[in-house]
Design a protein that fits this description.
The protein is of the alpha+beta class and about 240 residues long. About 30% of the residues lie in helices and about 30% in strands.
C-alpha cells in the first residue's frame, strides 16, 4: 500500500543487525533465507470435573497434550523432509487445580516454514488434525490461524550485485555469508512482490548480549558501517 501503489521499485534492500558477527562486517545469503511465521491458537473444550472421577468427564488436559503430540507428528510425517519446518507451542494454559480438570485448555504456538506451498498445506492440516485428535477424547476444538508473515527471499541477481558493491565499499575481508534462520521478518511481504536483498550487518562486541534480550548491547562502531553502507549502496544503485 502507500508508495508502492504509485511506484514499482527495481529492487528493495533490507539491513538487519546481527549480533553473531563482529561490528564492521556484513553477511549475505541468496534464496529463501528466513521462514514464514503463522500463529497457531487452539482451544480444547470438554466437560471438566473432579480429577478423581475421570469416567464422569472429558479430560481436556489429556486431549490438549495429545493435540500437541499430534502436531509434532504432523511435522515429522506429513511434511516433505527436504522442506525445513518448525511447529512449536510455548503456551499451555489449563486453569484447573490439583484435583480439577478444567472445561477448557488453551494452546498457542507458531508455525515456521521455508516453502510457501508447504506452509499453506500445513495451515489446512492443522485444524483437521487438532479437531480429530480432540474428538478422540470426547472434546471439541476451536482453531484460529491468523494470517502471518511469508518467508523472506533474497533474489540471486540482486544479492550478487549488492554483495559485490559492499565488497568494493568495505573490502572483501569484511564481507561474508550468514546462515539461514527459521526466524521471520515482515520484510517477507516485500520479497514476495519485488526482487529483494536482505543482508545482516555485524554489531557484536566484547560486551554484547543475545539479540532480543535484556543484555543486548551493540558495538556502536557498527553504526558507521550500517549508515555508510546504506548511503553507498543507494548512490551506487542510482548510477
Amino acid at each position: 500500500k502507500g508508495v508502492f501503489r504509485d511506484y514499482s521499485p527495481q529492487f528493495i534492500l533490507k539491513q538487519h543487525a546481527f549480533i553473531d558477527r563482529p561490528a564492521g562486517t556484513v553477511g549475505f545469503h541468496a534464496g529463501t533465507i528466513m521462514a514464514s511465521a503463522d500463529e497457531v491458537h487452539i482451544k480444547v473444550k470438554g466437560q471438566g470435573g473432579h480429577g478423581a472421577l475421570p469416567h464422569e468427564l472429558n479430560d481436556t488436559v489429556l486431549a490438549a497434550s495429545q493435540v500437541i503430540v499430534a502436531m509434532q507428528q504432523l511435522v515429522s510425517r506429513r511434511r516433505n523432509p527436504f522442506h525445513p519446518m518448525v511447529l512449536s507451542f510455548g503456551k499451555f494454559i489449563a486453569n484447573g487445580a490439583t484435583n480439577v480438570i478444567p472445561n477448557e485448555v488453551t494452546l498457542a504456538g507458531s508455525l515456521r516454514c521455508m516453502h510457501e506451498e508447504e506452509r499453506h498445506r500445513m495451515l489446512q492440516l492443522i485444524p483437521q488434525i487438532a479437531t480429530s485428535t480432540a474428538a478422540a477424547y470426547g472434546c471439541s476444538c476451536d482453531v484460529d490461524l491468523p494470517s502471518g508473515y511469508p518467508s523472506v527471499v533474497s533474489d540471486e541477481k540482486v544479492t550478487a550485485h549488492i554483495k559485490a558493491a559492499t565488497a568494493d565499499f568495505l573490502g572483501k575481508a569484511k564481507v561474508d555469508s550468514f546462515p539461514k534462520r527459521m526466524t521471520a521478518d515482515d520484510f517477507g511481504f516485500f520479497s514476495q512482490l519485488y526482487p529483494c536483498c536482505y543482508y545482516r550487518f555485524g554489531v557484536g562486541g566484547a560486551t554484547s548480549g543475545p539479540l532480543h534480550s535484556a543484555t543486548f548491547l551493540i558495538d556502536e562502531n557498527a553504526l558507521k558501517t550500517s549508515a555508510g553502507l546504506a548511503a553507498y549502496l543507494t548512490l551506487n544503485s542510482l548510477k
